[in-house]
Structure formats: C-alpha cells, structure tokens
Amino acid sequence: MKNGIKKRYILAVLLFVLACSFVNPSMILAQTTSHTVQKGDTLWGICEKYYGNPDIWPKLWQMNPFVTNPHLLNPGDVITLFEKDPVMEVTKPQVVKMEPPVKKPEPESAVMGVNVEGFTDVNTLGFLSLEKIQPWGNIFASDSGKLILGNGENAFVIFDESKEIKVGDEFSIGMISPLLKHPVTGKKLGYTYSINGRLVVEERLGLAHSNMKFYEKKNVFQTKIIESHEPIHIDNIVIPFTSVSPCVLPVPSNKELLANIVATKRQQVLINPNSIVYIDRGFNHGVNRGNVFEVVKANIVPDPKKPEKEFYRPQNSKIILPDIRIGMIMILESRPDTSSAIVLFANEPIPKGAYIKNISWVKTPDFLLSRASCPVE
Question: What is d(CA 158, CA 140) in angstroms, rounded to the nearest whole number?
C-alpha cells in the first residue's frame, strides 16, 4: 500500500516537471503582479526579466507614474507589472538616416557692364586698318535697277573667286576711305572702313553675261539687305559680318601706353561724347576690349621767372606741367594694331591726334559704376 502511494507521488512530480518544460518561463514570471526594486534595477532590465522584451519599458513606466527616472530606480520601490497579456510584440522604430540637407550654392551676382546701345550702334563701328582693306566682294546690281538701295531690297554681289560663300552667310556693307595720314607724324596711316548696312546671301546664280554673251560665273549671288544704316550704293564692298556686344565690361589697363586718336567714324571732324574714334594701337600692344583711357592735352606754360636783363631771357623758356584731362574713351573692339572706341565724356571738343593715357584701378571708379546697366555674358 505504502509503495503504491509512493509510486503515485513520484509519477505526479515527474508529470509536473514535464509540464513545466513546455511552458515559457517568462509567462510563469509574468503572473507576478509586482516587483520590488533592487539596487541597480531599471525598467529596461525589469521588462527583460519578466517579459523577455526590454523595449516595452515605456508601457511599464506609464503604469508606474511615480517613477521619475526609468534608468535610476530607488531600492524598495514596488513596480506594478502587467496583469494580462504581458508579452507584447513591440516594433522597434526604424532608424532613418537623415542626410544633411544639400546647401544649394547661392547664385553668383551678375557682373555688370556698360551698355552703349543707347549711345551708338555697335554694328556700325567700322575700323581702322593700317594695311589696304581687301573686300570679299562688291554689290554690282539690283533687281530693281536702282543705284541706291535700302533695307529689304535685293542686291546682286560678285565675290572673290577664292572665297567660299554659302547661302545664309551674312556680310557687312560699307566703303573704304582714301589713304589717311597720321595727324601727329604726318606719315601714311591707313584706311578706315565705314559700315552702311548688312546683307544675307540667299541664292547662288549660275550665269552672268557680258556683251550679250552668257558665261558661267561661280561666285555671283543674290542677297537681301537686312539692315540699312546709311544709303547703300552700287559698288559698295562687302566683308564678313562680325557681331559686337553692346554690353562692355570696363577693365583697367596696367600697361603704359603711348597712343593717339588718329581717325574717326565717317571722318567726323568734331569729336564729342559718344563719338566713335580709332586709335593706332591694338591687342598686339596690350589694348583690349573694355580698357578705359583718359584723353589728355599737354600743359606747357611760359617760365614766369624773369632774368635781371630782359634781353637775356630765352624766348622758348617753358615749364611742362601735368597733362590736362579733356575726356575719356572706352575700347569697344580691339584688332591687332588698331582699336575702335567710344568717347565716354569730353570737357571740350577733342582734336584728332589727341594723346591717350592708361587708367589703372583696383576698384571700378564710381563714374563707371554709375553707367553699369547690363549683365555681361
């Protein structure tokens, strides 16, 4: 009898142990309703101990509002635990890596230049050439038979046989001056080219005629006049059109220069503000577009000191004072040996032959800044 009871007791214990092996320990622990804080306890650690999930500590803190620091608990405090459904799946918040915002570069402020469009038409600057100007062709007839042409009319041009001409090419129309002399030295100077207008090539003509006999002429073209600034005449020459921007960035010239205003556009006699002038130096001499020069005249006065005897006084005794500024020019176009410029201002009419001197600066002068009105490309 006693042996049977003993066997049943042992069997019951074994069954209990076996059942416990299939139960989650955390579930067993979770049946506890409170926890007495021991030294070093934290809500994080308590959740790990009772629920196997330390990430649910905010919920436990919410149930125990007397706790002021979830990571520093007071020994002896009683923490109320979850009574039901203690094991909770807590989704860890996804950590999103925040890229630092890309700082957009601030737009650079536009470089401002001087717009000369209101003072002159830069497409009619013309130029000075120290060598004889070689035209590409010349107007020899019109479809209307007129000798003087204007904007929108058709003109026939015969080009140099050595030139490659294509439909759509643009050419300036103009005239070459007679040989000019240097106003200071009196030596041969060169020729100016005055622009009357512009044309565009429209069609190649295959035949030309002479004395009622037709023959092939390769470089005869029909063109259309698209700009007319002055009357355009039969026999006006044409050369390739070069566009010049009216927005000019003033820049200093740090190179000492000895140069003269030697000619003017269309042989203008009086040189005043906004006049176009030509100087006898170009980029081979360090003169570049945008350079600003002052126009000066010599300031020579008689020597006021008189000798004791008047007849000993030299007749040509002079004192040379600093030059007098009478104007200022800015280069609009520079060629190898000459340049075209506009007169920015003049205190008095400027004569041909007037000297120009360079102006250098670190900061753009106020009188140029006040004229700045266009962004330089």
Answer: 7
**Structure letter (DSSP) for residue 122:** G
Contact between 133 and 175 under an 8 Å Cβ cutoff? The reply is no
Q: Is 241 exposed, middle or buried (0-12, 13-18, 19+ CB in 10 A)?
A: middle
pTM flag (> 0.85): no
Nearest of 290, 273, 269 to residue 340 by alpha carbon:
290
Non-local CB neighbours of 177 within 8 Å, separated by 6+ positions: 191, 192, 193, 194, 267
**Element holding 331 (H helix, E strand):** strand 318-334
Tokens of 300: 């020579």
- Cα 256 from Cα 253, distance rounded (Å): 8
- For residue 141, CA distances in Å to 101, 114, 138, 167, 233 come to 68, 40, 9, 18, 9
Domain regions of the chain by residue span: 2-80, 113-375
**What number does CATH give the domain 2-80?**
3.10.350.10
Q: Mind listing the pLDDT tens digit for each residue in 87-123?
A: 444 445 555 555 666 666 655 566 789 999 889 999 9
Helix (H, G, I), strand (E, B) or coil at 43: helix
User: How far is the C-alpha of 361 from the C-alpha of 365, rounded, in Å?
Assistant: 8
Place of tokens 């503000």: 273
- Give the model confidence (pLDDT) of 68-95 as tens digits: 777 778 888 888 887 645 444 444 555 5
What the block records as the tokens of 26 is 């955390």
DSSP 8-state symbol, 291:
B
Tell me how far apart the 2 most distant CA atoms of the chain are, in Å. 172
Quick one: tokens of 6? 């003993």
* Among the listed residues 330, 261, 253, the one whose alpha carbon sits nearest the alpha carbon of residue 290: 330
Query: For the segment 182-204, what is each residue's pLDDT rounded down to a tens digit?
Result: 999 999 999 999 999 999 999 99
User: Which token pair is 137?
Assistant: 């062709």
